[in-house]
Amino acid sequence: MTIENFQITILGLGPGDARLLTRQAWEELEKYTEIYLRTNRHPAIAGLPSHLRIYSFDDIYQKAGDFTRVYQGIVDKVIELGKRSQGVLYAVPGHPYVAEATTPAIIQRAQQEGMQVRVIEGVSFLEPIFTALGIDPLTGLTIMDALDLATAHYPLFSIHIPAIIAQLYSRQVAADVKLTLLEAYPAEHPVSLVHYAGTNQQIIEQCCLYEVDRSHYIDWMSSLYLPALDKQASFESFQEVVTHLRSPEGCPWDREQDHASLRTSLLEETYELLEAIDNGDINSMKEELGDLLLQILMHAQIAHEEGEFDLTDVLRAVNHKIVSRHPHVFGTLSVSGSAEVLRNWEQIKAAERAENGNADKGLLDSIPHNLPALYQAEQYQSRSARVGFDWKEPGGVFQKVNEELIEINQAVDDQSRSAEFGDLLFSLVNVARWLGIDAESALRTANERFANRFRFIEAEARRQGKQLNQMTLEEMDILWEEAKKRLEDRAH
């Protein structure tokens, strides 16, 4: 196929300096009498061959309200021009396929209409940035568009790999990018701003992450370079550690584990995290969350090795579930408050059960049978309340407790007493739910108070040279009251 057969030629103008135009690009420019530019805001334009008539699509930028409409308008115009007998030479900054939305859109439209397209390579804005920063991208590098990152809530890349955030456009975009990055990076993280790379006006600014939107040089030729965080701070690095532990070169004990053998560890780590939460111990919470994450990754790795599922399946499933169950966040549904959110949640879950062939599965069936009894009771009550099976006001809940106290007193045998005692506990959990109290945590805290007070009694008995079984109940009760006072004073 000869050059003349191509109706559309897309040419890369390089990063800025006209001397960085490729030889192929220059030879192509000399064949045409006119050129259409996506934008004339590019330093290389001043160095184009003097015989060219230059047109640009900057007027579309001024008329359209957003980038989607701008690019659609440019694509439409290039396709129209390409249908002329002389075709069209369309030029874009940098490389036609690097940070250039119009190129793939033009090629897709051209293929649909049976038109021939040729792409002339160009040096992208990235090569001068690599040179300016002295980095080799093959050692690990993420490249992101600033507009994509600005609309995200968390960086969608691995923070233990360096990153280039391209085309900051404006200080407002830089501010939005900064807010997203601060979800993962410390505010004092050192970064570099590279402006006008590939031109003789190139500027490199060193600053902290929190300062990036303060630069006066920011425009569409600005990029942000983020050095990697500590490798040990990344999810992928931890997954590598766990996979290594399970590998033939890893730990014999870890290799021997399976889902069943790790069950006890998973339960212990969960309770240790709950204890840290109850104690308000932030440092312990941080440690215990890590231990729990280790258990999750171990189970996912074992499942991968057994051909059951892997971590990507886990993440894909939970992503889909959470997004689909929050149409008021990720869709167009409006809600009046959290109560309506919970009602919608149950309706969505019911629809999911029907779709998966589990339409007969009840509202409470998904609650695990081996949960701690108090927490299980709270879950049963909360689930049933979401569909309206609940007291209308708290007075009825307290009245139910009084009724259960009477019934346990009236029970005539051990079996009846056990049943009535269970009903009483269930009613007390309902009281806790109405008062916004976590019954499981409340009982655990009460247990701890009892243990601390009883330890005080033991210590005082030893100090007095007595054995507990030698003390009267009255003597121990006096020490109990003293323990309550001392421990309460210490707590305050």
How would you characterize this protein structure?
- The protein has 492 residues and is α/β, with parallel strands linked by helices.
- It has 5 domains: 3-123, Cobalt-precorrin-4 Transmethylase, domain 1 (3-Layer(aba) Sandwich), CATH 3.40.1010; 127-231, Tetrapyrrole methylase, C-terminal domain (Methyltransferase, Cobalt-precorrin-4 Transmethylase, Domain 2, 2-Layer Sandwich), CATH 3.30.950; 235-306, MazG-like (Helix Hairpins, Orthogonal Bundle); 362-437, MazG-like (Helix Hairpins), CATH 1.10.287.1080; 440-491, no CATH class.
- The protein has 19 helices and 10 strands.
- It has a 5-stranded parallel β-sheet with strand order 3-2-4-1-5, with helices on both faces. A 5-stranded mixed β-sheet has the order 6-7-10-8-9.
- Strand 8 and strand 9 (203-208) form a beta hairpin.
- Helix 8 crosses helix 11 (282-305) and helix 18 packs across helix 19 (473-491).
- The longest helix has 25 residues, at 439-463.
- The mean pLDDT is 89.
Key phrases:
alpha/beta; 19 helices; single chain; Methyltransferase, Cobalt-precorrin-4 Transmethylase, Domain 2; five-stranded mixed beta sheet; 10 strands; 5 domains; Cobalt-precorrin-4 Transmethylase, domain 1; 492 residues; five-stranded parallel beta sheet
